[in-house]
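Batch job 17 of 40 flagged for manual review because the log was empty.
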Amino acid sequence: MYYDLHTHILPAVDDGAKSFDDTVEMARVAASDGTEVILATPHRKDVTRDHSVEHVEMLVAEINKYLTGQSIGVKMVLGMENHLDIDLPEEFSAGRALRMNGTRYALVELPFFGHPNFVNDVLFQIQIQGITPILAHPERIESIQNNPSQLAEFVERGMLSQITGGSITGHFGGGVKKFTHSLLKRGLVHIIASDCHFPKGPRSPLLTPSFEAAAQIVGRERAMRMVVDTPKAVLEDQVVATERPMSEPSERVWWKFW
């Protein structure tokens, strides 16, 4: 049922799964929760510095073969969490930055702190390449917390946003929880993903708790689109129609939590 588009499930590649056994256990947990497809999104810098694109492609093929042999009902496809820096457009051109399952979409992580003056230009250069950025966990990004209208501008420019499930349920603190709920109400969330790092605990692949929490805020139909319809369309390289974001509430946001 679910399509999880942000996971750190590949073994010993980044700060996620430490071993092949961890990867398999994470896949079992995801499958038991109803996830059908997992997009592996290792950090670009970890892949290019310590491994290679060929290495992670090989891992995905090996993992899928093992999961099939063990009758674990989840399929893995490959993407990457691409930290936004000045070199990112060139990295896409060179094939060192990966799109999501080879589609027009790419998971892009804005700088956690500050707002470097090259951010808007780099996003524009990526879009010129025919890539649609999907912004990773904007609810945990300082510049978005300080200026939510910036996210609305990105969405109006054709980008999508992906929040972490744990942000809805309070794993990153009450401030992030409240801010995430505000983004959901404003129509600034398109995808909910686990951003899982471990088989158990709050960074596990479970999506049902965050889906249920989102459904309480935006209704089950809209919440279902965030974990099924939209991520499925992304992986199938389909156009995703978005609604115009709602106006920002009058009260100012003062919290900063990551």
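Reviewer: the log was empty due to a logging misconfiguration, but the result itself is present. Confidence is low (pLDDT under 50) at residues 250-258. Unflagging and moving on to job 18.
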